[in-house]
Amino acid sequence: MKLSSFAGRVFGSVLYVASTALAQDFATHGMYTEPNTRITFYTSYQQDGPITGGGEFSMTSVGGFTFGMALPPSAATTDYYDYIGLVIGSTPNKKGWTGVLHGDQGAGMPNHLMILAWPTGNGNEIATSFRYSPCFCAKTNCTNSSYQLPVIYQGSAKLTKIYTNVNDTHWTMVYKCSRCLIFDDPSQSEFNASTSAGQFGAGWAQSVTSPVNPPDPNSDFSQHDNGQGSYRIIVSSATQESYSKWESMTATAAPPSSTTTPPTTTTLPVSGVPVPTQTSYDYVVIGGGAAGIPIADKLSESGKSVLLIEKGVASSARWGGTYRPESGWLDGHNLTWFDIPGECNRIWNGGSAGVACTDTDQMAGCVLGGGAAVNAGLWWKANPSDWDYNFPAGWKARDMQGATDRVFSRIPGTDHPSLDGKLYVQSGFDTLRTGLEKAKWKSVTANNVPGEKNRTYAHTPYMSANGERGGPMATYLVTASKRKNFQLWLNTSVERINRVGGHAVNLDVSPTINGGRVGTVKLTPVTGRVILAAGAFGTPKLLFRSGIGPKDMLDVVASSSDSKVMINSASWINLPVGQGLNDHLNTDTVISHPNVSYYDWVEAWNTPIEQDKVNYLTKRIGPLTQAAPNIGPMMWEEIKGPDGIVRQFQWTSRVEGSMGEPNGNTMTLSLYLGRGSVSRGRTSINKGLNMLVSTIPYGDPNDLAAAAAAIDSMVKTLNTIPNITWVHPTANLTGAEYLKTLPLDYANVGSRRSNHWMGTAKLGTDSGLKGGTSVVDTNTKVYGTDNIFVVDASIWPGMPSTNPSGLIVVAAEHAAELIQRLPLNTALPKGAKCGGADYGGSQVCRDPFVCKVVSKSLSTCA
Ligand SMILES: Cc1cc2nc3c(=O)[nH]c(=O)nc-3n(C[C@H](O)[C@H](O)[C@H](O)COP(=O)(O)OP(=O)(O)OC[C@H]3O[C@@H](n4cnc5c(N)ncnc54)[C@H](O)[C@@H]3O)c2cc1C
Description:
Elements: E1 28-33, E2 40-46, E3 65-70, E4 83-90, E5 97-102, E6 114-119, E7 126-132, E8 151-152, E9 158-166, E10 170-178, E11 182-183, E12 191-192, E13 199-207, E14 228-234, H1 235-238, H2 243-247, E15 273-274, E16 280-281, E17 283-286, H3 292-300, E18 306-309, H4 371-374, H5 384-390, H6 397-410, H7 427-438, E19 442-443, E20 456-458, H8 476-481, E21 486-489, E22 492-500, E23 503-511, E24 517-523, E25 529-532, H9 535-545, H10 551-558, E26 585-592, H11 610-619, E27 634-640, E28 646-654, E29 666-673, E30 682-685, E31 691-695, H12 701-718, E32 725-728, H13 735-740, H14 749-752, E33 788-790, H15 805-821, E34 833-835, E35 851-855, E36 858-861
Helix pairs in contact: 3-15, 6-15
The structure holds flavin-adenine dinucleotide.
């Protein structure tokens, strides 16, 4: 579900840094003497690493970011406004800008001075510009302000460069900043960071896109997409006896041969617990997410040994999770933010570090529970058409009925999650309902009538139980963990599946943090099986690293750090992995209405409203039992595109501003294009072994024409509500005209995605081995293999009507039956057929024989 309140592409930039009472500190600190100036700085270093999500909220940054500060000793006792600064910015593609934000107690974007800086392209020259984002609200009180486009700062700050240097990937600037710790733009209220208070906040953001006109310091620039964050400056560490000497330094020319590398922090090696060498497993399930947990549980029911390997940390408190608010209001309770529905938006508001996957450019949960730990918990029984339209025989709605019943008997879900049976914070729902009623849309209880998805609306059902998140972690994992034949390893990443021909024999694992496992995990000889449930990006990544995928991707892996361990190219299995990438195309629209009122979910992280907190902790009632931010009504409509294909649309409403509109009376209505969409994209792996969306899966003209009609229909439907204002689209725009204003390119993927990625290892009967589009057969077995299966979002041939996690759990229940029904592999005698076109049986030969290729259509044990 897409719940980020920030538009992905804003010209003039939105340097977003969490505004908190005291800025949170996500940096690594140290001391660094810059070699050209010999000035010693107290440094704040942000990790060099692949960005998460679209990069706008990533806590890591490609290339890293370093800020250094030096202050005079007197700053510790008397507030001081000047400092000597160091910035080492990253330009990984020789492009980009870096922003330094001067905070006070907090480091929020509004009314704080920023330095934006970037290489101009002319030698070692760096352009710098003072900006600030004006307070949207009363001058003196910015706590409720929203994020405004930064403008040129007119205060008294002055920057003098002492040293600059630019190389291919980084640039360095040492500078004196006069009157930069006081904010005195004449149009705003003056204040200063108090150095005498001992510490103050600061922030950063970076982009890999250069400003529009790099030589011009006043140039426009686009939103940060290479990370952002906040940190604290400890004054006693930044003060230096030599400050006055350094302060008088003038510009230093860069020595011609000088290359600058950022000060690196020593990364301690992660220590792992060795994998037991004597044990082998009947089933190894990779990935403890929405699909991995239920399938591991179901497979373990038979008594076979099952190992579930999850690379992330524990999330829910039930499993040892520890992520709680800094203010301590959850301390002593068996709860983390993952357990409390009202805290689900934490993933978008400063909670992604250590939680979001760092090896993909999109948002995904890499903790126990996967997406089902970090999502909003919307829980849908599939519209029967979702199976009937998208899936082949064996996966039609009637085939899925048993699995659906089993899942919903364990996780029924509820649209009244508060244990007193009441619904809270319903101003948004009640406002829109009047228009829907007038237009004769039908009110339904969605999971009682899953097929009624045309001009219907509903309260939102969640997977929660007992006022907590619930879902697979609270059900399937509980039963699995009681079985002696089931094991769960956390903090352990599967690096690759090692195979002989199409038969997996073992898996290499490594720890992601101390205490994870290291070594090689054995499958039971001959009969062992491996199930990939690592998600729509994690699964294709593992397949690529295991030599399964299109040649261009396997070539990338072969040229990476995997080169020495990758399976020989003679054993590569050529399948269209990654090529059916799909997601609900999202189009945000915004309305405002005087009756709509905002609930501050972001504030509820550290300081929830006292009564709501007490009600939640003591009775599991109130707003915190519902997912943030006041989701509902959910609305559906079917619309036929010009190509005659009926498309399913879902509108997800929430009480929150977006597209630059402030919270308050605003609602965002997000339009998802579901079943019937024909656009497809691609995910690729790069040499750093990170996954990216290389072709966005949106933009087919028939898809867009249907989306335009859906917007027109909703505008008309809601226009009957007295006092409603359509903010986006504005009254003069048709749906088609509005869509033209919203770019459909990679830079804007953050606002067009729904985080419902699917389809990267498609299930179907048209084998990719023979030029078809499918990676797994209807038993979820990877074509060309005899014991490698995929069961997760990757197998989806087309988008469903709704958010997908409920359907993914149903698919896991169904797949568990299919897989267990398949005869186990047997070791074949000499001369037996063990491979070739259309062969789907065992590829294992009895010792000492091996499966040898005779011709394209035949392999035999010899
Ligand atoms: C922010 C957000 C909000 C969402 N909101 C909703 C919603 O409200 N309702 C809904 O239905 N859907 C929602 N979704 C989508 C839904 O959560 C996902 O579609 C679903 O979780 C995908 O299930 P999966 O099993 O395919 O993968 P995941 O649930 O992502 O699980 C994959 C797991 O594999 C692990 N893994 C990956 N690689 C490896 C490896 N090499 N070794 C070991 N472990 C590995 C990961 O850490 C992860 O735990 C949301 C998604 C996001 C990101």
